[in-house]
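Backbones bend. To wit:
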Amino acid sequence: GSRQGFHKQWYQRRVRGVLNYYTNYYYKSNLRMHGLVVVLSLFLAGCHAEVCTWTNIEDAFDFINNEHGRLALPEGWAKGREAATGQISESVYPHTGQIMFPDDRTFTFVYYPDEAVIYWAGDKGSAKSVWEGEKAAPHSHLMPFCRFSFYKSCRVEVVLTPIEDAFGGMSNVEGELALTNWSEGREDATGSIDTSSIPHTGLFNFPDDRPFTFFYYPDEAVIYWGADKGSTEKFWEGVKNLWTDIDDAFEESDKVEVSADCNGDIGIKFQDGLRPAGAGWVNRGNYPPNRSS
């Protein structure tokens, strides 16, 4: 639009003026520096100004707190509403997540950071409810030779470890937990877990001891017994899941070259040249597992 055109013209005039001044000055005084300015001129010739807007969910809605993908809405975020918790995956576009409202129910959502809009219980066009947030002010950026966007990296920032993966002898069937052969001389135990919010909460009944409530943080693979983190000295540390992006996993392979972008489009090239290249998609936003075709 006109705003973007104005920024482009402004940058172009500024770049030309600066380059003309330094080119004339250093050409007369320092031939070596002149050569450097010529290279810089060629580099900047491929630059363009672009206006981009990207609003994180916590900036679009001032009552939402976001710490490494864990969301929290304080009590009274809306008149008479209870505090709520949830999570968001910012490794995919649009962002996806869920929030558990204790005075209502758990809702999934899709968040478009370029619109600052949350679509509840469905995507754009099919959502049952829509929240419109406050968009960040647009910024102009001078970028070389490439299209620039504010999209966050598609690398996974937070890896969640299900409780049954973190602890040997633990099983989880639709929220019903069982702990078998977990410690010498201890009896098997059973319990339950609610995974609709982070931290997960639950109860374990140890027949040779007593029932214990717990808080489980899947991003830490840690169970805190009897109270939340910071309020108890009893905790179990499990084994965290490791995450390797699919293209990194084959980075040193001498047989195949794999590339995947943030949209999930994947390409496979065989180094021997005997087989044709392949293409497909991978869902980088879910764990476990990564579905592909």
